[in-house]
Amino acid sequence: MSRVLAAIKAKAAASPTAPALSNEGRNWSYADLDAEIDRAADALARFAPNARTVAPVAVRLDNGPAWVILDLALVRLGWPSLPIPGFFTADQCAHALSDAGAGLLIAAEPGAPDLTIAGLALSVTPINLPPVSLPPCTAKITYTSGSTGRPKGVCLSQDQMEAVAASIVEVIGADYGGRHLPLLPLAVLLENVAGLYASLLAGGEYHALAQADVGLGDPFKPDLKQLASAIAGSGATSLILVPELLRAILMLMAFTGRRFPNLNLVAVGGAKVAEELLRQADAVGLPVYEGYGLSECASVVALNTPTARKTGAVGRPLPHVDVSISPEGEVVVGPAPFLGYAGGALCGGPWRTGDLGRMDAGGFLFVDGRRDSLIITAFGRNISPEWVESELLAQPQIRQAIVFDDGAHGLAALIVPLVADLDDIAIGAAVDRANLRLPAYAQVARWHGRGPLEPALGEVTGNGRPRRAAVIAIHRLVEAAE
């Protein structure tokens, strides 16, 4: 049995009334959750003759108790699941279904007669797609909206995902397993593994609200007032954020004076975090801990913790992984962090992440940026654009920044200001302040203001992270046409 399911059963036996899962209108104890998982698994079993299925079950649902129960029911059945993020375009969704060879699609549909979980009516639609070869023991296939519109399906076993969650509980401590509020979509592996699975392994409560209820119905235009109210009103003790959300929350706290005294753990990952942002978090009492991971490693690889934290580092590697640095400076994670890709080659050993990094004498990992985005200047300097971007993003006037090589001119940056009507003088002053924190060879020589990045053009991921190559290519096309 999976570690998470075993932990739920053990908690249900020892403390049956302890809170496990909730939303705004209902609470499930650990005993309730265990029973709901069984009921959902029994109801699902009738969609696979002889209780057998090999094709993945695609799940396209908003955050909520139904997502949680359905995910755990699929684990109990041993059926591979294929979470589909709500921010995927129709083309990305179709690609994921086809690439993984999905057999069923489960989605919310009012009045649907197929299945009801946690009071939510669900449709279960068979999909007639050609089967796809998956690695043995595949429990979940995760697709990220990475650098292309045709992402690869990363295949993970339940053991690999739960090893990550168990390591997180080990290094942080079960005492931090209070009430977790998911802000990222549950279909994103980081929230699924480090949020849901880790919370249940720690014996905590998972307070699963819909994205709109936490002010993130449109992840590209967060409702900060509603987000703050959701965090405070839920009594959440832990959150997982991407840097863009951290910046938004820090701005809100700075401008309104609002504080969140219940929070004791705010994990941040997904992109490099500027040290200035971490200092701002410390100044307002927000307990932020930076981490690092990727889908091919079942999410988290390293994490700063309340007892082991170093600013600028992404933390020490988790106990279940072996992290080394190759002679070329690339971060390598072993022993075998994922199974392989859907329809592709198996992963039989350590994974070369493509990230440049280093380890210090204390065992802390520092990640400097992507190897394939490294800029080699005309003066022979190697610069990770993520480093420069993190300093730009520490300026409150700058919402997003993409740094690139401008040839003989040096480094250039595309700047999305915090507000559309911000004047060039204010933006230029913000760039100048960021440059003061950078050595001369890494300073931004020229910048170009532009409007918000466009998801429809493939310029940004669902988590708000710029797709560097796409943004720069579009900028150069526009420049050439002018």
Please, could you describe this protein's structure?
There is one protein chain. The chain has 12 helices and 26 strands. With 482 residues, the protein is α/β, with parallel strands linked by helices. The chain folds into 2 domains: 3-366, ANL, N-terminal domain (Rossmann fold, 3-Layer(aba) Sandwich), CATH 3.40.50.12780; 374-481, GMP Synthetase, Chain A, domain 3, CATH 3.30.300. Strands 4-3-5-7-6 form a 5-stranded mixed β-sheet, with helices on both faces. Helix 1 (3-14) packs across helix 2 (30-45), helix 1 runs parallel beside helix 6 and helix 5 crosses helix 6. The longest helix has 16 residues, at 30-45. The radius of gyration is 22 Å and the shape is globular. The model has no long low-confidence stretch (mean pLDDT 91).
Number of helices: 12
Strand order of the largest sheet: 4-3-5-7-6
CATH topology name of the largest domain = Rossmann fold
Q: What is the beta-strand fraction?
A: 15-25%
Q: End-to-end distance, in Å?
A: 62 Å
Largest sheet properties: 5 strands, mixed
CATH architecture of the largest domain: 3-Layer(aba) Sandwich
Structural class: alpha/beta
Give the CATH superfamily of the largest domain: ANL, N-terminal domain
Which terms would index this structure?
alpha/beta, GMP Synthetase, Chain A, domain 3, 2 domains, 5-stranded mixed sheet, 12 helices
Compact summary:
This protein is of the alpha/beta class. It is built from 12 helices and 26 strands. 31% of the residues lie in helices and 24% in strands.
